[in-house]
């Protein structure tokens, strides 16, 4: 065989071997994964090339993770509860979903902090307070003063930094709101000088969140009936819904109701501080026009607490509107000047010591402009269809 023939034979052998190698690779998946830019040919190709799919390796099994709430409990103290706030509940209305205690005490929640967000809904961890911790609910269970008969602490309302419970509940269902001790601005400087803005210091007291209702006044009448005591007259609006304020109750029977519970009627200063706060706001909600959710005038009478914007800095309702309210003080047009004249002795001012010739008491609320400094004098035996009342309780000692 000539040299030229031998060279041609080698070329054909080399070409055949290359062809066999290419066929073997194509059949065995030797092309592997292509880069994204190589998966499709140019635009003149009729079909896109589908890359070969490689089955992923099975990874080693991971250790099973505990459920989020189990994980929380594993690291949590014994008195921890996990609570949820599902959409079907009102804000702040929690439900215990798991607890280490057989019968968790829902009133022992003092500190609520946000927990693991992996739980469905809004998850929180609630921890019971340390015994005797300042400002905790433990103090609320043991207030630093004796409670009247039929009175209990509203533990879920918390405690003031001084350790006093923020709310108390009496046997008639009323709740008293703490108004802390301190000074406030009483009255208002008027152009004619009939009123003056003066600073008054008061001890702490509890004032009813709402006016006394028809339902509550009916309990009072029933208690006196069972005791065979003289009955007060029925309120003028006795046919209204039971959650409306009791109206047309004379002063003496309003005072008798308060004493039945171990309470009293508020002084004008107490009433006004509960409405204005320590900063002397002109209205319970602050300054400016109120944003009522329904038509309302000073003559409008509704269920107590129905107008949520009529709420003072301490959480007391209807101090601007609804019923006008009795106060304990004798009425005097110059009461604010008398306070200035008495100087430091005006602490816990409770009004003039003697009545005027008409035996008038101070009545507060329902000013045409909703201002909290509005006042009027009404004879104490008056029966008026817009006149109601609420009560206060003064603890035997006050935090200073």
Question: What is the CATH H-level superfamily of the largest domain?
Answer: paralog of FGE (formylglycine-generating enzyme)
What's the shape?
A: globular
CATH architecture of the largest domain: Alpha-Beta Complex
Overall pLDDT: 76
* Oligomeric form: single chain
Number of strands: 15
Strand content: 15-25%
As a whole number of angstroms, the C-alpha radius of gyration is 39 Å
Structural class category: alpha+beta
CATH topology descriptor of the largest domain? paralog of FGE (formylglycine-generating enzyme)
The CATH top-level class label of the largest domain: Alpha Beta
**Distance, first to last CA:** 125 Å
Contiguous uncertain segments of 5+ residues: 11-15, 22-54, 65-140
Give a description of the structure.
The chain is of the alpha+beta class and 400 residues long. It has two domains: 68-127, no CATH class; 172-393, paralog of FGE (formylglycine-generating enzyme) (Alpha-Beta Complex). Helix content is 19%, strand content 16%. It contains seven helices and 15 strands. It has helices at 3-27, 68-74, 137-141, 214-226, 251-260, 268-276, 335-342, and strands spanning 80-84, 95-99, 111-114, 123-127, 151-153, 167-170, 175-179, 182-186, 198-202, 205-208, 324-330, 360-364, 375-379, 387-388, 392-393. The strands form four sheets. Strands 5-6-7-10-15 form a five-stranded antiparallel beta sheet. Strand 6 (167-170) and strand 7 form a beta hairpin. The protein is globular, with a radius of gyration of 39 Å. The termini are far apart. The model is unreliable at 11-15, 22-54 and 65-140 (pLDDT under 50).
